[in-house]
Write a structure and sequence with these properties.
The protein contains six helices and seven strands. It is of the alpha/beta class. The chain has a single domain (3-197), classed as Rossmann fold. Strands 1, 2, 3, 4, 5, 6 and 7 form a seven-stranded mixed sheet that branches. A hairpin with a 6-residue loop joins strand 5 (109-122) and strand 6 (129-140). The chain is elongated.
Length: 199
């Protein structure tokens, strides 16, 4: 489900290169299956992979998410000259979809990228994928002028983890899929923001 909102009485949009960007991570990755009755338990697959690796791989902790997002250069993606501020406190879904800013509003432009949920999915014989849910809020002069929320996903091609030797490659695939999904969500939001702000 994707939602997009434009607020009435919009403030004049500030110059894009003046936008302060804030990023908020999820607390952890979860695993789900196509049929919950067949999977039996949330995170069953993750536990199986970690057992195969012989250790807890701790995929996509908040710190790992911030490291990956740093390489995405959110400032460039939003045409901002201000370095993004990455928050290490995880955000919950209810907080992510709320309209109020997570940080003190400024007199200029502020964008908050909130990613509260990360899911590793599988469906029968289909390629495993990684899906995120996120909400991106755009504020101007302390007022919310546009809001976008939805899902983005990336396939995890050639993913396998059956032995400790597979751990490094599997981890890179998981991290690469997360990077791709976050990039997709940001790009989706930019399209909706442009449409909403031009109306």
């Amino acid at each position: 489900m994707v939602s997009m909102m434009t607020l009435a009485n919009q403030a004049v949009e500030p110059e894009p290169n003046q936008c302060a960007i804030h990023f908020f991570p999820a607390d952890r990755i979860r695993s789900v299956g196509e049929d919950f009755d067949a999977v039996h338990a949330l995170d069953q697959d993750l536990r199986s992979y970690y057992n195969a690796a012989g250790r807890d791989l701790a995929w996509l902790t908040p710190a790992h998410q911030l490291s990956i997002v740093t390489a995405l250069h959110l400032d460039r993606r939003f045409s901002s000259s201000i370095q993004p501020i990455l928050h290490d406190t995880p955000i919950e879904r209810s907080q992510a979809v709320s309209n109020g800013p997570r940080v003190a509003a400024t007199d200029g432009c502020q964008i908050e990228v909130r990613i509260p949920q990360i899911f590793m999915e599988r469906g029968g014989l289909a390629t495993r994928s990684l899906r995120i849910f996120g909400a991106i809020k755009h504020y101007a002069h302390g007022q919310l002028i546009a809001s976008y929320s939805g899902f983005a996903s990336a396939e995890m091609q050639n993913f396998r983890l059956k032995a400790p030797a597979d751990s490094e490659t599997a981890t890179k695939i998981v991290e690469g899929a997360y990077s791709e999904a976050v990039g997709q969500l940001v790009d989706q939001s930019k399209v909706h923001f442009k449409q909403s702000l031009n109306h």
